[in-house]
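Worked example

This section walks through a single chain of length 458. The input is the sequence exactly as stored; nothing has been trimmed or padded.
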Amino acid sequence: MHFTKEYDLSSLMISISGVRGKIGQGFGLEEALSFSKSFATMMNGGTVVIGRDSRPSGPYLESLLTSALLASGSSVLTLGLVPTPTTKAVVNLAKANGGIMISASHNPMEWNAFKFISKKGFFFSAIENQTLLSILQSGKFFKEQISPKGYIDSGEDYIDLHLSSVLKRVNVTKIKKKKFTVFVDAVGGAGSYVVPKFLQMLGCKVISHNCNPDGTFPRPPEPTAKALKTVEPYFKKSKANIGFALDPDADRLVLFTPKRGAISEEYTLPLALMNVLSESKKKSKVVVNLSTSFLNEEVASRFGGEVIRSKVGEANVVEEMIRTKSVFGGEGNGGVIDPNIPSFGRDTLSGIAHILNLMAETGNTIDELMDGLPNLFMDKQSFPLAKGISLESLYNKFQTEFSPKLISEKDGLWMYMSDSWIHIRPSNTEPIFRVITETKSQSDLESTLKRVKQCVES
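Given that input, the structure is written out below as tokens.
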């Protein structure tokens, strides 16, 4: 990708997920300002919503972004420390021109990012991202106004509207009667205040853990079962009915259960899906990405639903949901998407509400609900691309080794073999490629992974 000589952006990750990089190593003030000016030029006045997670670099990036927007004539609704889905919801609810979430999601603390949001709270499409880059490349930014009419205002009231919109999707009275004790690990991120507040609105007793939003991330920021092993003793000591772990910008959700401890992030979506499809019409459509477990097909089949698979990335899932008029969607990384909530994207509050509602409506514990789902045999690995090896040649190696019955090339290479699949694709957020594998048994998974390793290393 060609950029003007004025800005060397080669070390940044620029994708459907926005622009992200390491502070002082690609994503410094100069680069952040160039994107701020490009975004402000696109907004061309009107109201813009800004939220951020707890990274220490967030406040100064917010100030820089706010300055660019005000200079261009835009007004700013500032939310401060809020989850990504809340920022998206407020863009929708406030009828703003757009918004930015300042967060590098599950990346380590030294990273930060701008997640660009368009009207109605949707992440930028591929076309909108290209428009932004074209403005940056041309250097044709807005002309700074001497007497701009824009202003800064708080969006606090809109945050409560987001919470209320989620509550409308569930039986609050029935959940309150259960008086659930809920454990929350917010990894010191953007959900540290909002998620406990939301649970209290559902009548839950909240046990807060890692809810001091100082941006230090006391455990690995990506909430996987492996990363949460050190948190399990705190959850078990709490005697909670269920536990929820978040990522720094609170758009991914992972569960703890009393019997199992931390469970795979792949279970979040099918559990929430059970609640939604139990109240939906038969033949309802659901969208998940190509890297998401077949558990969702299993749940959908029980209710006569249909699962459609999209490219990886929230924006891609949402685009497909709109096209197919789907009742629900999400990603296997713990992302739950309910189109009836104004965030219309991965939303931890939505996932929490639907899973607690499922427990309240069925009268089952979270472990009993898990007992009703098939076992998961899945592996997710990341690799740097070997020197001199192209992704295309890597894909050819995999096809030769596995002779798949069905392939899709809409997002990297997705291969289906009898009762198993493998997805190989470059990451949208890190300079690596990912290999995700799912089979029907542990022995099949182990033998498949040996063959995967041969393809990667040979």
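What to look for: The mean pLDDT is 94.
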